[in-house]
User: Which sequence fits this backbone?
């Protein structure tokens, strides 16, 4: 058994060394963000497997397309048996799995979460290079730039907005959502309050700040959890009475991709409606 | 000073401390509001942001802190008297953990969304099951060891089932909420929670408070108490249902909060001349003080981090518990 394993491992090492320089043909992605970028950029038959979250309508914008790929759960054993020539992972999750796969001789490329619009362009370009699909990547970057130009051409609305997600988390300065709020011409209340990164926005402070718009992610999941109790709190209901609340599913903003700008459009439309 | 006068003084001091801590609890929060503004807003009928913060966020939190603390102190004193065991406490004998399990099943299956009363009722059922199981295992004359062992078994089983139920939920946030159910928190509780839990807690209090005289008699032993006309079945009914109703409702809205019911009666017992009937009201006030203080501290120590109440009560309670175990062991030798 040991011998078989050794032979298997050597053959893997050889295979991955030989293919490293060439365009990969059997790519496995283990993170919902890299899943979606790979689905957008990969050529036909190039992407073999995506993570189970890619098919989850609450987490993935491209859930409908994910059905065409084999599903993985980010487990080393499972990915090993797929014998990919390139593994794409996120830097935040499955750390031990990534280390184990590297030890087994696989080529693993990692993507950090996108925190700005520049990160999105960079990630798309890098994914294009890894998959040998530079033209497709350039096309997507161009689409983003055009989209940004349209958004920025509109006059700023000077309205204030606060994001209020499950467990009363908000997006402060330095986050992708903060960048999107900037692009849509609005003011991020969390950044004004001095919050950086994704941090807690106590309900009390939200009431005092009294923003023009409140972005929630209510109803992302059908199953109940205390995390969403904030949305049924009488004080939250009182402050969002009227047309103040906009629901933008977090699937648009957890990953940096061309569709992320959809969230900016939704914000823009909501600000226009909340006159 | 006579013992009765000393007892009255103790109740007055504890009552005053509870009142002051209740006021403090109303004035602590992330929004820096001036004291006079906030108290004025509490009684204001205008719907401004400050009035909303005071009436809908801080008031329910302070009320729940007061009521849940009183519940834990009272039920701890009643259980210690009824089981005649210094280690009996809702947290230690598994009542809080099983009440949590009941509440978790009601919330995460969506049952409580359809039928709101289902939440306290499910927690009550869980709590009652724990008391009955522990009592059946330990027997009426159960020693400290059997009660603790049965309590540990019930607690860890209920804790494991709670984790299992939360891990199986399709909502990814549910698994993170294991912490809430094991350690308890009052963050952003609303008046809805107060109205849901208060009736059950009050019914439980009345049942437990009526135990004062029988518990006094019970200190002479079961047989002596029975011969003096104490209806043991009635006492059992009141102790079990009173604890289950009040602790169940408290746990359903705030999670399991440990050690309050253990520590408070022990600290106050020497001050009331070891009479259970006097210990009950004193423990209720003492428990309210401890929980209000803990809830104020979680907001001061780590604002914005949502520190859980059980962390603070365990920091104070666990060393006390070790000391108690040490002393009990010495007495056994």
Assistant:
């Amino acid at each position: 058994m040991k011998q078989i394993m050794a032979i298997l491992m050597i053959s893997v090492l050889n295979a991955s060394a030989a293919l490293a320089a060439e365009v990969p043909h059997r790519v496995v992605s283990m993170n919902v963000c890299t899943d979606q970028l790979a689905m957008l950029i990969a050529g036909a038959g190039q992407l073999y497997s995506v993570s189970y979250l890619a098919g989850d309508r609450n987490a993935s914008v491209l859930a409908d397309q994910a059905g065409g790929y084999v599903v993985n759960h980010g487990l080393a054993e499972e990915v090993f048996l797929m014998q990919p020539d390139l593994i794409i992972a996120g830097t935040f999750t499955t750390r031990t799995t990534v280390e184990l796969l590297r030890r087994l001789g696989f080529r693993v490329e990692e993507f950090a979460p996108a925190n700005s619009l520049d990160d999105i362009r960079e990630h798309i370009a890098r994914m294009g290079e890894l998959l040998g699909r530079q033209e497709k990547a350039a096309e997507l970057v161009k689409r983003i730039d055009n989209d940004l130009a349209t958004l920025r051409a509109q006059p700023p609305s000077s309205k204030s907005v606060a994001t209020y997600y499950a467990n009363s988390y908000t997006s402060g300065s330095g986050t992708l959502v903060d960048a999107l709020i900037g692009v849509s011409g609005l003011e991020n209340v969390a950044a004004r309050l001095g919050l950086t990164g994704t941090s807690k926005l106590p309900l009390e402070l939200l009431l005092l700040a009294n923003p023009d718009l409140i972005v929630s992610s209510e109803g992302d999941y059908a199953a109940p959890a205390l995390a969403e109790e904030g949305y049924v709190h009488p004080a939250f209901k009182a402050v969002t009475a009227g047309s103040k609340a906009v629901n933008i599913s977090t699937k648009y903003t957890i990953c940096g991709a061309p569709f992320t700008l959809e969230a900016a459009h939704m914000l823009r439309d909501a600000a226009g409606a909340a006159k | 000073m006579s013992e009765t006068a000393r007892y009255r003084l103790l109740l007055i001091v504890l009552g005053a401390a509870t009142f002051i801590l209740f006021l403090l609890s109303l004035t602590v929060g992330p929004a820096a509001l001036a004291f006079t503004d906030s108290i004025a807003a509490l009684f204001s009928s205008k719907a401004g942001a400050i009035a909303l913060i005071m009436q809908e966020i801080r008031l329910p939190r302070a009320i729940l802190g007061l009521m849940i603390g009183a519940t834990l102190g009272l039920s701890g004193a009643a259980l210690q008297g009824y089981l005649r065991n210094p280690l009996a406490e809702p947290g230690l004998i598994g009542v809080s953990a099983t009440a949590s399990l009941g509440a978790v099943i009601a919330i995460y299956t969506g049952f409580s969304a359809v039928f709101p009363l289902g939440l306290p009722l499910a927690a009550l059922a869980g709590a009652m099951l724990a008391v009955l199981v522990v009592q059946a295992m330990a027997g009426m004359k159960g020693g400290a060891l059997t009660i603790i062992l049965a309590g540990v078994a019930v607690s860890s089983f209920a804790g494991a089932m709670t984790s299992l139920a939360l891990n199986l939920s399709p909502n990814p946030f549910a698994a993170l909420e294991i912490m809430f159910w094991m350690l308890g928190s009052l963050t952003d509780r609303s008046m809805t929670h107060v109205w849901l839990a208060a009736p059950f807690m009050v019914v439980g209090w009345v049942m437990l408070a009526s135990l004062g005289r029988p518990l006094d008699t019970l200190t002479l032993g079961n047989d002596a108490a029975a011969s003096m006309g104490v209806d043991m079945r009635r006492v059992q009914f009141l102790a079990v249902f009173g604890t289950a109703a009040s602790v169940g409702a408290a746990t359903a809205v705030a999670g399991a909060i440990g050690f309050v019911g253990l520590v408070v009666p022990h600290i106050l017992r020497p001050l009331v001349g070891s009479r259970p009937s006097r210990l009950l009201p004193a423990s209720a006030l003492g428990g309210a003080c401890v929980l209000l203080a803990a809830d104020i501290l979680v907001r001061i120590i780590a604002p914005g981090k949502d520190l859980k109440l059980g962390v603070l009560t365990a920091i104070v309670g666990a060393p006390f518990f070790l000391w108690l175990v040490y002393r009990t062991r010495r007495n056994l030798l």
